[in-house]
Each structure stands twice: as C-alpha cells, then as structure tokens.
Amino acid sequence: MTNYSNYAIIASFFGLWINSYLSTIGQLCVGFILIFTFGILHGANDLELIKIVNTKGKTLHFYKVLLYYVAIVLSGAILFYIIPWLALSLFILVSGYHFGEQQWNEKLKLANRWVKFFSK
C-alpha cells in the first residue's frame, strides 16, 4: 500500500503542476476525459461492490441497483446545479467516507484485537 500511496502523491502533485499550464478549455477537456474513463470504471466497480456487500442476503436485481445508482448520481448533479455549496459539502463528506471506509475498517480490526486482548 505504501508504494501506491507514494505514486498517488506524486501523480497528484504532477496533475496540479500540469493544471497550472492548461487553459480553462484544456482543464475542462482533461477533466471530462478523466471522468469518462476512471469515473465510469469506478462507478462500475461500485456496482460490483454493492452486489457483494448485500447484507440482507436477498438477490439484488442488476437493473434495480443500476437505477438507484444512476438516480443518486443525477440527484447529485441536479443539487450541484441548484445549490452548489451544499452539494460540494455533501460530496466532500460522502467521498471522505467512501474512500476512507476501507482504511477505517482495517484500523477498527486492529482496535478490536486490542480490546479482546485486554478484556481477557
């Protein structure tokens, strides 16, 4: 994981550096290219994770999950258009949870080991 983190930090700073040399139109083009490549792949991965993490044990119909996912994305886009400051705040909170959930789960597993160790 540390190699990935190092590459991600370097790539982020490189992206910020390159961004300062692009025009507004260039920034928009690069942004849309990234959204339509990595964003769509990320969304497809989310749909697979939703199928795996089904806690009720019921079979989820793919089109139903897809409909809910698209409805959430469209609701977010409409909210960005109507109330941008609220949408951005919610986006940052949800993204922080979404991307940090795996790391927190690992930390909580370690914490549970310590609790079990000291409760014996």
Q: Span from first to last CA? A: 32 Å
Could you say which structural class the secondary elements and strand pairing correspond to?
A: mainly alpha
Cα-based radius of gyration, to the nearest Å: 19 Å
The DSSP helix count reads 4
The amount of helix comes to over 70%
The chain-level mean pLDDT equals: 78
Please report which band the strand proportion falls in: under 5%, 5-15%, 15-25%, 25-35%, 35-45% or over 45%: under 5%
What coarse outline follows from CA principal-axis ratios? Answer: globular
| SSE sequence, one letter per element | HHHH
| Overall strand count | 0
Low-confidence stretches: none
How would a crystallographer describe the biggest sheet?
A: none
Q: Can you give a write-up of this model?
A:
This protein is mainly alpha-helical and 120 residues long. The chain has 4 helices and no strands. α3 (62-82) crosses α4 (84-118). The longest helix has 35 residues, at 84-118. The relative contact order is 0.04. The mean pLDDT is 78.
Name some characteristics of this structure.
about 120 residues; mainly alpha; about 85% helix; about 0% strand; globular
In brief:
The chain has helices at residues 2-19, 24-52, 62-82, 84-118. It is mainly alpha-helical.
Topology:
Elements: H1 2-19, H2 24-52, H3 62-82, H4 84-118
Helix pairs in contact: 3-4
